[in-house]
UniProtKB/TrEMBL annotation, chain B:
Keywords: 2Fe-2S, Iron, Iron-sulfur, Metal-binding, Oxidoreductase. Coiled coil: none annotated. The keyword Metal-binding applies. GO terms for molecular function: 2 iron, 2 sulfur cluster binding; metal ion binding; oxidoreductase activity. The keyword Kinase does not apply. It holds the Pfam family Fer2_2. It comes from the Bacteria. The lineage of its organism: Bacteria, Pseudomonadati, Pseudomonadota, Alphaproteobacteria, Hyphomicrobiales. This is (2Fe-2S)-binding protein. It comes from Bradyrhizobium betae. InterPro entries: 2Fe-2S-bd, 2Fe-2S-bd_dom_sf, 2Fe-2S_ferredoxin-like_sf, 2Fe-2S_ferredoxin-type, 2Fe2S_fd_BS, Beta-grasp_dom_sf, Diverse_Oxidoreductases. Residues 1-76 form the 2Fe-2S ferredoxin-type domain.
Amino acid sequence: MNKHVSPKMNRRAFVVGTAAVGAGLAIGLDLPFGGPAMVRAADGSPEVNAWVVVKPDDTVVIRIARSEMGQGSLTGLAQLVAEELECDWSKVTTEYPTPGQSVARKRAWGDFSTGGSRGIRSSQDYVRKGGATARVMLIEAAANEWKVPASECTVAKGVITHKASGKTTTYGKVAEAAAKLTPPAEVKLKDPKDWTIAGKGLLRLDTADKTNGKMIYGIDVKLPGMLNAAIKDCPVFGGKLKSYDEAKITGMKGVKKVVKVGDTAVAVVADTWWHAKTALDALPIVWDEGENAKVSSESIAKWLAEGLNNDQPAYVGNKNGDVKAAIAGAAKKVEAVYNYPYQNHATMEPMNATALYTADKCEVWCGTQNGEAVFAAVLEASGLPAEKCDMYKVMPGGGFGRRGQTDYVRQAVLIAKEMPGTPVKLLWSREEDMAHGRYHPITQCKMTGAFDADNNLVALHYRLSGQSILFSLRPEALQNGMDPAAFQGVAQSGEAAIGYSVPNLLVEHAMRNPHVPPGFWRGVNVNHNAIYMECFMDELAHSVGQDPLEFRRKLMGKNPKHLAVLNAVAEKIGWDKPAPQGIYRGIAQVMGYGSYVAGAAEISVTEGNKIKVLRIVASTDPGYVVNPAQVERQIAGSFVYGLSALFYGGCTVKDGKIEQTNFDTFNSMRINEMPKVESVMVPSGGFWGGVGEPTIGVAAPAVLNAYFAATGKRIRSVPLRDQNITFA
Amino acid sequence: MANLTINGKTFTLDVEPDTPLLWAIRENAGLTGTKYGCGIAQCGACTVHMDGVAMRSCGVSVSEAEGKKITTIEGLASGDTLHKVQAAWIAKDVPQCGYCQSGMIMAVAALLAEKPKPTDADIDEAITNICRCGTFQQVREAIHTIASA
């Protein structure tokens, strides 16, 4: 099975992965929140602190380290800072500090990584403190000027008042003085119950330019003298570039240079991208495809299926009781095997980055979910030290996990290095983007449930076989070889804990890593784990003639937060009343990214294979809701992404290559296929869960369970297009 | 060389006649609001108006576009006055990443020019753009808001 694991590929992934995870560690700086006391913004306005700049006209610039990619975190984080700052929301703007600036200031802005639904939940505490600290300093500056105690001053919407003397001033007028003060050692954050800016469904701060063509995405970056590059990487992962016949294209219009990129790719640089792409398509290329060219979807499926056998080694992720004994002694046994395919992120904007390399500087402009990872990639690819590198974030046309990786950045820098002094924009074609994703991992799962004579579930054996993301991208995060993230949604405890209590439980993972590189794909391992567990729960319920909701409820007594969201969707969809004639329901729940979510769908099915999704209800308990309007959009969007993958997605492998090349073979839902998603937010407080990803987990199982209710047919394989099931 | 009329202006561009209009607009005319998504007229990110009709500009050659009135997202507003679709998109907070929205807005503007009060069925038939963020719910609501204004 050696052909399924490409050691070369993994070694490279290890180097890049290590650098990408701990940009601070890689650069030798990991001291958060230090730096000089008084710094000025580019226009000379004083920084009150790293997070807050107040201009003389009272405009408040809030610095955002995490990436906006459509999910709304930029607005949500600004709301949290503004809430504590007590500024005028109508005067708030935002800006991104660069990773280079952050490193130069001892990582003043902390982590830039924007994945795992962490954008808000993992930085809410220190950005709120940033806002509160600035407020205290601004008030103190006014009090000093007035020679009154700060405790006698109040502030509202950026206007500071000393009631006794009747004096007022604004943040803009005292910012200069405030910036010179020593920050308070401790600040008290507001109780979320008292929020007036956070917690509200305010409009996003970044919408206008997305409606008039002015928003600059990576693909739109223009620099003086810039050239454009198109690239082809060996279509078989792990293969190499053998040769290319440059002479065939040197005379073509606009072509400036043909560049070998690493060991695996070739790029054409031209005046325009269209010229570059046209010439690249005409370039004869010979690949050394290597052993992986023998791999197909069929060989991967066979290898994974072997991993379902109990005699094969597996990592135990969650265990109680004695599953094997309980199953052996059970009155009744139910078994099923499911599978979930590779999925491409297919962001609307294909991967791209613009790089400018000179002997003493390397700069990159691109959309990314992790500015520090890009920074680390720029350092590594350019060979220049941190103080000579920087990267500038622009709006990404979608992320979904793909833009947490930096493969395209490395390529852009390597190309630019061949043309010192000339900025080069590298843009992947959609075909290149489909061929070189970091795919949702492929898995299979065999589940065995056992009942006693009274139809009580006494054992559940959940055996995964398949790919580990961490093995490829973050091997240092493996625990004695085990990938703890593989158990997202079925873990014993933590932010992705199982919601059911079964007396005898065994959750295990036979890790098998095919050569196709896996990545973090919106929802990550929750996607398949939620399908496996929630569809199988449905199977178990039906096998003993019980209602799927009631069956789940009986197993959820010890997990009241899981149960609460399940009950919320059940109530909203009207589970206690029969569905209207010809309409069928399915329900599912899961926990991921620290949030409890549930979903229910109503569908109709015609001719046995044409599904109309009529209604979707989704519930989430993320602890706190910073912007309900944006949470609602993330929930709805997660269903579009999840159901697109269920119906139309799935990437297959032939001769070691991904077969799907564009949206004609990797389709995505359209407006006519998507009903309104009715969101039910039940934030219970006391913890901070994520929002962008969790609900995607319940999208597919809710619809699959409804399909069973409608047809009596159990679907255990994704995507539905492979089973001739489509939208009506 | 090709002469293209884009947003009321004539551009004389150094492009081959078979160049897709999308790339002539983006790289030669320098109007980057129109986006590349697939290059095979599947996703609609590159939608522009040609003589008022919504067209996927990646599938139209420069030679086919010559002599036509082309409108891109940059030319949709009348001076400082936003087109009603743009205004509704802002009021209803429609875009997420926004990358597909230039094409989405152009497609919706063409629909509303033809059918000022579209039904859900009209919307389903006319709007076939891909949005991976999944803004369809807000798109539909915004269209109905405009139609009922």
